[in-house]
Design brief:
The protein has helices at 2-13, 56-59, 71-82, 105-113, 182-196, 212-218, 280-283, and strands at residues 38-44, 87-94, 117-125, 131-138, 144-149, 158-164, 171-177, 201-207, 246-250, 255-261, 272-277. By secondary structure, the protein is α+β, with helices and mostly antiparallel strands. Strand 3 and strand 4 form a beta hairpin. The radius of gyration is 19 Å and the shape is globular. Residues 41-269 form the Endonuclease/exonuclease/phosphatase domain.
């Protein structure tokens, strides 16, 4: 009996599945269309856990380690939302471990939402237990996508940088998940500031664990001219939003057509959406 149980456990922990890549590839991804506006979304999905109360951090904490039958249902609902956007930044995804049923959640959401390009950044590899990741989904073909580890006392934070448009003057989208520590945020945003210093059209997206006013006045981002969402754009906690921790910050050259906190409580964070248009002069270069 022991051998039979041992075999069942081994099969569960080491399923015979084809290896999953970190990137979908670009073969079937449409070219960037600069004459169109771009619909952006950033969402901390909390690995598909539906949290709607502080007590759930205790009663549902086991879902951060073990699989749950409703996680796929939650992911399907998230996919319905993100299918309405062009470029999506995801934080707190699982890259394929026991807790997610060995599903790469970035890939799953891209395929379920019908979005042709996806990129997974693995930031903290806990083997079979957890694959902490960021994700980028895109309807357009980027010029290139790079990933970087962010500095910090505790490793496990990262940033994805995607460039679109022309090599000479690209649109640069940077998605990140910053640390909780203010000291770590200073170092991390110093690194990000260096990455965007030479570009005119920049979008920063992600869970930044801080309010926009402090980010833009008390960190290295004060050296930029990025435009934030209104102070009232509270995204956390999702069941009673009191803090603006999730952001889309853009260069003044990008016209903000619409921005909002999306009322879609599928995580402990609410999604943030923004519709931007490129400047007219930029479009004429294509």
């Amino acid at each position: 009996m022991y051998k039979r149980l041992r075999k069942q456990i081994d099969t569960m922990l080491k399923p015979e599945r084809p290896p999953r890549g970190r990137c979908s590839g670009l073969e079937h991804v449409p070219e960037f269309e600069p004459h169109r506006h771009i619909r952006l979304l950033t969402f901390n999905i909390q690995v598909g856990i539906n949290t709607s109360s502080y007590r759930h951090y205790v009663t549902r904490s086991w879902q951060h380690i073990l699989p749950h039958r409703r996680r796929i249902e939650n992911l399907d609902r998230i996919a319905q939302l993100i299918s309405n956007y062009d470029v999506i930044a995801l934080q707190e995804c699982d890259g394929g471990s026991l807790r997610s049923g060995y599903i790469n959640q970035v890939q799953y959401l891209a395929e379920a939402a019908g979005i042709p390009y996806w990129y997974q950044q693995l930031n903290r590899n806990l083997g079979q237990i957890a694959q902490h990741s960021n994700g980028l989904l895109s309807r357009y073909r980027p010029l290139d996508v790079t990933e970087h580890k962010l500095p910090g006392l505790i490793p496990g934070r990262g940033v994805i940088i995607a460039r679109y448009g022309s090599e000479e003057d690209p649109l640069v989208l940077v998605q990140m998940h910053l640390s909780l520590s203010k000291a770590a945020q200073q170092r991390q945003l110093g690194f990000v500031r260096e990455q965007i210093a030479d570009y005119q059209h920049v979008v920063l997206m992600g869970d930044m664990n801080n309010h926009a006013e402090e980010l833009l006045t008390q960190t290295p981002l004060k050296e930029t001219d990025l435009v934030p969402l209104p102070d009232s754009a509270h995204s956390f906690p999702s069941w009673r939003p009191e803090k603006a921790l999730d952001h889309i910050l853009v260069s003044p050259s990008l016209e903000i057509r619409r921005s909002e906190v999306v009322s879609y409580p599928m995580s402990d964070h609410l999604p943030i959406a923004m519709d931007i248009a490129l400047p007219k002069g930029y479009l004429e270069t294509f």
